[in-house]
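Example 9 (inverse folding). The structure is encoded as follows.
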């Protein structure tokens, strides 16, 4: 079974928040292929900007620091996914984007897991997808998340929290740990460990 991973891209997305998990799922596919298996993941890059910005008509965003990232599909046209991943960055605009929030709400019932990296938790909260279970975000934004959404149980000093259908991670590099954990959970610890080794990344599943 190949799972579709919907990875949200938006202006001022944190580069490693988005590209770190992308790399994990991409490398997991390569490692699986070496073993003669079908690719376990299809990563779909979902662009929050409606404007056409690429020569082929696909949308693009400007990540933090100016890096230009192309998307596969506009958020309004995005399908539901097995895994939905919302990275962080400067999220004020994307957390108020009706098309993004509608896609997340539409995706939630069919998804095995909806996850956030870093301040992506603010976007999930804006969509009403977080509940009484503990959540986390970048250490610098814990108090802001509590203030903006006082009903949430916000915790720090964790790399990530996984409740099965909902997962959140701490900041930036913690997205690597969460993505590797999801590989382990969905496809097995052996593939996750081999992926981490291929990436030369010291990973220990929590």
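The amino acid assigned to each position is listed next.
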């Amino acid at each position: 079974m190949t799972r579709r991973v919907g990875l949200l891209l938006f202006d001022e997305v944190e580069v490693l928040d988005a590209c770190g998990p992308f790399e994990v799922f991409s490398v997991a596919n390569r490692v699986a292929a070496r073993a003669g298996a079908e690719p376990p993941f299809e990563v779909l890059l979902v662009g929050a900007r409606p404007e056409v910005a690429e020569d082929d008509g696909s949308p693009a965003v400007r990540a933090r620091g100016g890096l230009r990232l192309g998307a596969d599909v506009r958020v309004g046209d995005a399908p539901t996914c097995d895994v939905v991943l919302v990275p962080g960055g400067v999220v004020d605009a994307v957390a108020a984007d009706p098309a993004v929030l509608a896609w997340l709400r539409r995706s939630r019932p069919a998804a095995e897991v909806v996850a956030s990296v870093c301040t992506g938790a603010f976007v999930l909260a804006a969509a009403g997808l977080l509940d009484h279970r503990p959540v986390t975000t970048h250490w610098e934004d814990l108090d802001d998340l509590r203030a903006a959404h006082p009903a949430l149980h916000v915790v720090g000093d964790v790399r990530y929290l996984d409740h099965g259908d909902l997962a959140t991670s701490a900041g930036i590099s913690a997205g690597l740990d969460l993505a590797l954990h999801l590989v382990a959970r969905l496809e097995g610890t052996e593939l996750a460990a081999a992926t981490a080794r291929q990436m030369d990344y010291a990973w220990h599943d929590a």
